[in-house]
């Protein structure tokens, strides 16, 4: 088995550990989190604060890493803070997920139980495809994204960097969701969404950046 270092010790980390056990390709050797005041050993794993990252690199030079944090912005900040090569990150795929042979999945990305990624779909780096989510054919999903449980991206959808798609939301074919936009849980996106916008409802309406005003999609 390959060595694996998990960064983050919250709820998302618990789910990733279960995937690691089912996938049976990695052995978790260390957990990194600033909540730890000092380094200690528990369950045969080293637990260290961020200041202990360099000793971990020296102790486990060939280890893969995974950022186990659910918030997109924080995942990106941690990636920048760690400053380790992209190729040092693992890609975790639960054995129950259905992945097309023609799909492409980036480093640091996690595919949760029962997710489906169909033909010619492309998933970026450090993204989360959560439990039961469906990424249909020819979709492009950017870096630092989170596609929540049971969300559906129909054919040819483009999701830019940093986007969060809420649970049970759906995006109809060919639409684009701009970078760092948020689609509320249960929403149905029928027109493309600009960057940095929150859209909610079915059909979804947009909430303007920096305010509470809600307006319908522009034509």
From TrEMBL:
The active site is at 137 (proton acceptor). Keywords: Acyltransferase, Transferase. Substrate binds at residue 70. Residues 3-82 form the PglD N-terminal domain. Gene3D superfamilies: 3.40.50.20, Hexapeptide repeat proteins. Acetyl-CoA binds at residue 146. The record marks 138 as: Increases basicity of active site His. The keyword Acyltransferase applies. The keyword Cell membrane does not apply. GO terms for molecular function: acyltransferase activity. InterPro entries: AcTrfase_PglD-like, Hexapep, PglD_N, Trans_hexapeptide_repeat, Trimer_LpxA-like_sf. This is Sugar O-acyltransferase, sialic acid O-acetyltransferase NeuD family.
């Amino acid at each position: 088995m390959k060595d694996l270092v998990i960064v983050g010790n919250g709820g998302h980390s618990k789910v990733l550990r279960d995937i690691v056990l089912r996938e049976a390709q990695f052995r978790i050797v260390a957990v990194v989190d600033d909540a730890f005041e000092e380094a200690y050993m528990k369950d045969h794993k080293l637990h260290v604060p961020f200041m202990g990252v360099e000793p971990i690199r020296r102790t486990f030079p060939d280890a893969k890493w995974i950022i186990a944090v659910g918030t997109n912005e924080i995942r990106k900040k941690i990636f920048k803070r760690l400053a380790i090569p992209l190729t040092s990150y693992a890609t975790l795929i639960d054995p129950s997920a259905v992945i097309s042979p023609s799909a492409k999945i980036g480093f640091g990305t996690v595919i949760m139980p029962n997710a489906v990624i169909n033909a010619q779909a492309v998933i970026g780096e450090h993204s989360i495809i959560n439990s039961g989510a469906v990424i249909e054919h020819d979709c492009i999903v950017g870096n630092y994204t989170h596609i929540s449980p049971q969300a559906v991206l129909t054919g040819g959808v483009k999701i830019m960097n940093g986007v969060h798609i809420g649970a049970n939301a759906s995006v109809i074919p060919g639409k684009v969701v701009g970078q760092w936009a948020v689609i509320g849980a249960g929403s149905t996106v029928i027109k493309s969404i600009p960057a940095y916008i929150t859209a909610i409802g079915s059909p979804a309406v947009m909430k303007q950046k920096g305010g509470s005003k809600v307006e319908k999609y522009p034509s």
